[in-house]
Structure prediction request, 597 residues.
Amino acid sequence: MDSDDMHDANDVESLDDDFYSGETEDAPMDDYSDDYDDDNNNNNNNDADDDYFDDGADDSAQSRSTEINFAILKESDIRDRQEDDISSVATVLSIPPVAASILLRHYNWNVSNVNDAWFADEDRVRRKVGLLEKPVYENPDAKELTCGICFEAYRPSKIHNASCGHPYCFSCWGGYIGTSINDGPGCLMLRCPDPACGAAVDQDMINLLASAEDKQKYDRYLIRSYIEDNKKTKWCPAPGCEHAVNFDAGGENYDVSCLCSYSFCWNCTEEAHRPVDCGTVSKWILKNSAESENMNWILANSKPCPKCKRPIEKNQGCMHMTCTPPCKFEFCWLCLGAWSDHGERTGGFYACNRYEAAKQEGVYDETEKRREMAKNSLERYTHYYERWASNQSSRQKALADLHQMQTVHMEKLSDTQCQPESQLKFITEAWLQIVECRRVLKWTYAYGYYLAEHEHAKKQFFEYLQGEAESGLERLHQCAEKELQVFLSAEGPSKEFNDFRTKLAGLTSVTKNFFENLVRALENGLCDVDSNGAATSKATSSKNAAGSSKGKSGRGKGTKATVSSRLTDDNEWSCEQCTYANVGSATACAMCNQERQ
Prediction:
């Protein structure tokens, strides 16, 4: 599969970037973090959802999914940071800015490394990067100088040189610089044309001697080098996006969300894939794009011609097979023997006595075993891939619905319900949560595919959590999609709109908390299941807290939990607002604090 198929939503408006990146033009990142902390403090009053997975988790693990450890850089931000670094080095080392720029390029824009190397051995650094203090070629006070390339004589005003002093005319310099720039970003390390000289050609000389087009190219190379040579920065991999990301590697969350609305993993630059690690993602993508599954299908659904060995698919009921030209060999589909040896005495056109007899003797056991194994492997892969792809499609549809809500419905709803759009932000937040949850849910199927078959208890617990996640997300999605339509089609303000606001906001909060806990549980390797295959007390309490959405029929994927299923146990009651299953003795919902009705 192509990871770029998520990029068609790049036109989602940047007003919702705070959900992804924690920063908008109106709300700086620090303000966003404070708001987020307030929300978390409110949610911390409801400890039952945290206990659902691991109430012993430390604070760093608890906040891992909400920490903001990156900054999105526009081109203006990149230039500002670049100029700040150049100015810092020039001030500390008491050198011109163009010399500081040369130093930084050689040390991959690492200010600390430049300062350390310079103060350790200034002369060695100067020789290394080509910053000469004295010229190696002294130009006499003459009326004319000879160009070292074309060997023509010119007045000194028509000659230019680097710090080394080697004289070249403006025309030759322009051709030399232009050729180097057209060769690629290596021009940033340009040296004197003299083969024996290592003097650097600085940016001032480029601006003086290069053409306007070449100067523009050089400037682009300089900007790109600041991002590409710096270990803490990368370009957003979304097609057409020119933003960069500065990442703080101190955290454990590698998911990055750009202003273009594309989310990707800093570590592997594939699309964001929590809770699955980069190695699993690499294997999954390779499996989706490789020929291995094609070969499995061929092995499971075809047989080789006994003569030419080309694979043949049986598309009719008759066992009489004829290979395509030029082979044209006729054989029996079951036993692969020549059809000339078959007839009524061997069972006719729709059976083969020879095959049945040979099968009883064990002749075809290994072949049939291989074919059966290939078929089972293909069916298992198809099961997980179809659900992975289905959530992929659902996420893209949710992105399209979000865009339509922002560009069309929000203004209409504001007019109809007589409320400012700022009071309708809960709807946008719900759709953003749906988009994020679809992404997480999609990658849980890759997680499930590579979950070891022999770990039955972990597999059952995983499928239980996945099923609960799907049912919770479906409730949120249906509320945001179906119930909202009532108010979109209304002709005036509705008394039920505030109840809808409370319900949707509550479902958004519950779903967000559940998926954060789900991600944490999967990233921790489902440690709630012990080595003996039994669920720990935390895992057991999680099932009691959430209620079973599958009843006695087992744990199936995608099974929808209903309110009625949560009320089958007399010791529990289901909150009408958020549908959370509470213990019978509780007088208020442990999730949303709604009083028991």
Remarks:
- The first strand starts at residue 70 and ends at 73.
